[in-house]
Every structure is written in structure tokens, then in C-alpha cells.
């Protein structure tokens, strides 16, 4: 028998509400197996910073490293909360975790489950995955401000792209495309304007493509990609892109596949040197926090991605199937609360065997 050792970071706002349901589902699905699970909860986020001044200490980071995987809710203060500097928790906790634990691939699958209401009139069969670079790009904080507050102020935000960083993400995207039935990879960038980084990405794709002759490669500028995500999202299979474009595209992808409350993600450490971290694409949603109405499905599907990553594919597939069954029954019914969705998915698990 195996025991998986998980760290859980519920975070702020709706984070704890949705993570509670994800944990229930993990416990329920593993209860039917010979795999046990132990959970260590870490009190981190805006509320924790307000109480202690800690965003993420070295000791906490080291302790997190010792777990097999991390389940993360969401962090971020309410917009009106002027006590918390904007973005502090996002950068000093969430991005620090992604960077320190070398989460180079931010994996964000998008699937339109039958029965889900897409806002698109003709969504078609949407089933693609965005391989978003996770540790570089404009996210690294490379830049600065001079002559602040004057008419001559200059602010720069320089995107970092390394050959190593781009190569490992592009190779991973090719491997995923090769393993999927449609064998298609789309590089999304903006190399007509962002020539330096854009050409590194483009050359890297050209260099790796011969290793995957079965994968059909194409390219879209990011602005055009947003058109096709709305007019013809079924055309996409694997999208590989940088950190910022991937952030924007995956909120859009969430919206066209029935809402951000369904969009899951994994921050993957490819070489196994640190735990990977799984979290919904959405944030702390201060506008609905505390009301018990947040959709926990994205967190639950993120937990399924985690189980896949840990090699527990049967358990993961059971969760995905239970979610698909539950989502199918949602159409036309009144929205349910967070716990009711959790109950329903736990109940749906019983009907699913793999
Ligand atoms: P958000 O994703 O929190 O919310 C956007 C909209 O989607 C809101 O109307 C919200 O109510 C809705 N929504 C989000 N999740 C939902 C769910 N599970 N069920 C139903 N509705 C849901 O994005 P935002 O408003 O831009 O950001 C709020 C805070 O969260 C900010 O502080 C931001 O920096 C932070 N944030 C954190 C993460 C993260 O921790 N991974 C991700 C994105 C944003
Ligand atoms: C996400 C979020 C984060 C990002 C923020 C909160 C730093 O928007 O996970 O998509 O931009 O990556
Ligand atoms: Mn985002």
C-alpha cells in the first residue's frame, strides 16, 4: 500500500471553500483503493500576511518541498482592502512557489463537457490543452522605474526567455501532442512585434519538430489566437505559449468552456526535483467569497490532474468521469452551492468504475 503525502494551501477568499470540496473528493476516491493520503494544511495568503507579516518564509518553503504534491486554492486580497499592497501575495507567495519549485510547465486543459453551457453559439467539440511556460516571461519582475512621478517617468517590464526554459516547455508540449489522438501543436506568440523572444520560441519549435514527425505544427499570433478561441475553439489540440499569453488565453479558454469555475491547472516540475502544484485557474473571487456559492469543480478537476501526475490514473479518471456526469445534469437546473456540488460529485463517484 502507498500513502501520498500532500500539502494543502487553501489561501484566501473562495480558496478554502473550493479546496475543502477537492479534499473530500480525493479522500472519497482513494477510500476505494489501497492508497492512503495524508494532508498537511499550510496557513498562507493575504489573511496570513495580515496576521503575521509572512508571505512565504524559507522554512515554510523548505517544508513544502518535502511533500509529494501541493493542492492550492487561490490567494489575493479583496480589491478594496488597502492594507494589502496590490499583488504582494500573488508575487511573494504564488509566483515564488512556481519559481522556487521550478514549475516550468503550467498545464491548463480545456474541455467542453457535454451539457455545459458555453456562451458560444457553435462551440463544437472543445478539447485542448495549453502548455503555458511558468517560470519566465514578463513574470520575473525584470524591469524598473526611473524618474518616478515626473513627466519623464520610464517604466520597463522586460520579458525573460531562456533557451533552456523555452526548450523544455516546447519539448513537453510536443510530447503531449504526440500522445494525444490529434497530434497537433500550435505555437502562440507575437513574433511580428516581439522579435527577440518570438524568434527564440519559433526557432525552438523548428529545432524540436523533427523529433516528432507525427505532430502537425502551426503558428498563430496571439491576437489571432483569441479570434479562433471564440470562433473555432475545436481546432486547437495543444497550444504552447509564454507565461503572459498563456495566462490571458486560459481565462478566455475557461470562459468558452462553460466558465472559470470549471478550469483546472497544474504547475508541473518536469524533472521531479520538487513537488508539482495543482490549482484552479481562477482567483480568490472576493466578490462571491463567504457566500458558499463558488463552483468547486475547477479545484476538484485540479485534484484529478494531481492524481494523474502521481500515477494514480484510475482514481483521476474516476473523478473526471464523475464531474462529467455531474456537469451533464446541471444544464437547465438552478445553480447549487459549493458543498452541494461537492456532495453531488462524491455521490457520482460511486457510479463510476474504471
Ligand atoms: P477571479 O478569478 O478571482 O474572479 C473573476 C470572476 O470569476 C469573478 O466574478 C468571480 O466571482 C468569478 N469566479 C472565479 N472563480 C469562480 C468559481 N469557482 N465559481 C464561480 N465564480 C467564480 O479573478 P480576479 O477577480 O481578477 O482576482 C481576484 C483576486 O484573486 C486578485 O487578488 C487576484 O490577484 C487573485 N488571483 C489569484 C489567483 C490564484 O491564486 N491562482 C488567480 C487569479 C487571480
Ligand atoms: C493565474 C493567476 C496568476 C498568474 C496571478 C494571480 C499571479 O492569474 O494563475 O492565472 O497570472 O499566473
Ligand atoms: Mn490568470
UniProtKB/TrEMBL annotation:
Known pathway: Amino-acid biosynthesis; L-leucine biosynthesis; L-leucine from 3-methyl-2-oxobutanoate: step 3/4
GO MF entry, a single one: magnesium ion binding
InterPro entries: ICDH/IPMDH, IsoCit/isopropylmalate_DH_CS, IsoPropMal-DH-like_dom, LeuB_actb
Cofactor requirements of the protein: Mn(2+); Mg(2+)
Subcellular location as annotated: Cytoplasm
Gene Ontology terms: biological process: L-leucine biosynthetic process
Residues binding NAD(+), per UniProt: 283-295
GO cellular component: cytoplasm
Residues under site feature: Important for catalysis: 139, 190
The reaction(s) this protein catalyses: (2R,3S)-3-isopropylmalate + NAD(+) = 4-methyl-2-oxopentanoate + CO2 + NADH
Binding, Mg(2+): 223, 247, 251
Superkingdom in the source lineage: Bacteria
UniProt EC number: 1.1.1.85
Amino acids binding substrate: 98, 108, 132, 223
Chief localisation class: cytoplasm
Domain Isopropylmalate dehydrogenase-like per the UniProt entry, residue ranges: 3-345
UniProtKB keywords: Amino-acid biosynthesis, Branched-chain amino acid biosynthesis, Cytoplasm, Leucine biosynthesis, Magnesium, Manganese, Metal-binding, NAD, Oxidoreductase
Co-factor note (free text): Binds 1 Mg(2+) or Mn(2+) ion per subunit.
Stored PANTHER family: D-MALATE DEHYDROGENASE [DECARBOXYLATING] (PTHR43275:SF1)
Function: Catalyzes the oxidation of 3-carboxy-2-hydroxy-4-methylpentanoate (3-isopropylmalate) to 3-carboxy-4-methyl-2-oxopentanoate. The product decarboxylates to 4-methyl-2 oxopentanoate.
Family, per entry: Belongs to the isocitrate and isopropylmalate dehydrogenases family. LeuB type 2 subfamily.
Known partners and oligomeric status: Homodimer.
Protein name: 3-isopropylmalate dehydrogenase
Higher taxonomy: Bacteria, Bacillati, Actinomycetota, Actinomycetes, Micrococcales
Amino acid at each position: 500500500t502507498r500513502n501520498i503525502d500532500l500539502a494543502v494551501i487553501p489561501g484566501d477568499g473562495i480558496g478554502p471553500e473550493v479546496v475543502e470540496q477537492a479534499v473530500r473528493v480525493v479522500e472519497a476516491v482513494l477510500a476505494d483503493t489501497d492508497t492512503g493520503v495524508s494532508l498537511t494544511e499550510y496557513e498562507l495568503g493575504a489573511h496570513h500576511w495580515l496576521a503575521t507579516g509572512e508571505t512565504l518564509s524559507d522554512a515554510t518553503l523548505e517544508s513544502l518541498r518535502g511533500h509529494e504534491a501541493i493542492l492550492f486554492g487561490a490567494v489575493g486580497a479583496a480589491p478594496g482592502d488597502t492594507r494589502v499592497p496590490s499583488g504582494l501575495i500573488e508575487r511573494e507567495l504564488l509566483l515564488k512557489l512556481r519559481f522556487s519549485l521550478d514549475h516550468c510547465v503550467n498545464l491548463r486543459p480545456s474541455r467542453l463537457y457535454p451539457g455545459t453551457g458555453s456562451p458560444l453559439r457553435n462551440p463544437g467539440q472543445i478539447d485542448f490543452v495549453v502548455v503555458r511556460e511558468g517560470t519566465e516571461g514578463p513574470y520575473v519582475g525584470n524591469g524598473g522605474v526611473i524618474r518616478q512621478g515626473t513627466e519623464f517617468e520610464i517604466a520597463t517590464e522586460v520579458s525573460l526567455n531562456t533557451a533552456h526554459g523555452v526548450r523544455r516547455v516546447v519539448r513537453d508540449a510536443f510530447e503531449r501532442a504526440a500522445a494525444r489522438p490529434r497530434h497537433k501543436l500550435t505555437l502562440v506568440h507575437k513574433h511580428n512585434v516581439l522579435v527577440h523572444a518570438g524568434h527564440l520560441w519559433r526557432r525552438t519549435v523548428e529545432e524540436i519538430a523533427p523529433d516528432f514527425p507525427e505532430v502537425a505544427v502551426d503558428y498563430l499570433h496571439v491576437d489571432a489566437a483569441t479570434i479562433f478561441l471564440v470562433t473555432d475553439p475545436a481546432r486547437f489540440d495543444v497550444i504552447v505559449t509564454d507565461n503572459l499569453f498563456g495566462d490571458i488565453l486560459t481565462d478566455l479558454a475557461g470562459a468558452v468552456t462553460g466558465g472559470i469555475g470549471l478550469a483546472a491547472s497544474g504547475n508541473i516540475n518536469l524533472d521531479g526535483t520538487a513537488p508539482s502544484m495543482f490549482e484552479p485557474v481562477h482567483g480568490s473571487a472576493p466578490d462571491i467569497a463567504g457566500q458558499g456559492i463558488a463552483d468547486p469543480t475547477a479545484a476538484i478537476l485540479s485534484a484529478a490532474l494531481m492524481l494523474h501526475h502521481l500515477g494514480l490514473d484510475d482514481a483521476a479518471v474516476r473523478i473526471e468521469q464523475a464531474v462529467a456526469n455531474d456537469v451533464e445534469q446541471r444544464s437547465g437546473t438552478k445553480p447549487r452551492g459549493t458543498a452541494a456540488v461537492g456532495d453531488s460529485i462524491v455521490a457520482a463517484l460511486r457510479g463510476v468504475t474504471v
